[in-house]
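Quick entry, no commentary yet.
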Amino acid sequence: MVAYSFKQRFVAPIQAGTKRQTIRIDRKRHARVGEQLQLYTGMRTKHCTLIGRAPCLSVWPVILILREQPGVVLDGFRGIYGDLDGFARADGFKDWGELAGFWADNHPGVETFDGVLIRWGNLL
């Protein structure tokens, strides 16, 4: 099992099933398709709480372009999400503007982010 921690603001959308993906920096070991994910809030603190468990459906390379001409490159295909607002909603945001604002607040100066997109199914 692979565990991921989320900010408190994402707990309700995860539980409601409206947030079923996360964008993370690439690292040695992410979830693999078919593995069970453990989704937490407050990991590595005394307030650590399990949000739920879910099967990993996909793990794709992703590039977020957060500058003047925004876009998403998913598994090498730019614009697979012609609807950037739809992509943002799947990640727990109201629209692309809110996603871009979150990234600006949490990752100052980052205009292009290269990482992985992890998607999961229904909470178990």
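second:
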Amino acid sequence: MIGPGTAIAGVNANYGDTATLSGVTITGDSGRGIDVCARFVGDDSGDEPSATGSGPDGTHCRYRVSDITYP
């Protein structure tokens, strides 16, 4: 991914979404502000989902910190 951006992946944990990531290189984000994997509570109303967290959790966001590099 080339920044700016907000997240590499976003999952609706309440719907059982998962993201498995490896070998990700993020450029243009020297401040490391891009979330690698963001978790949300999805809804069917058409509204933006509510954020519940980010980072690896082993269930919905599956990756290791060592899988992400910043050149």
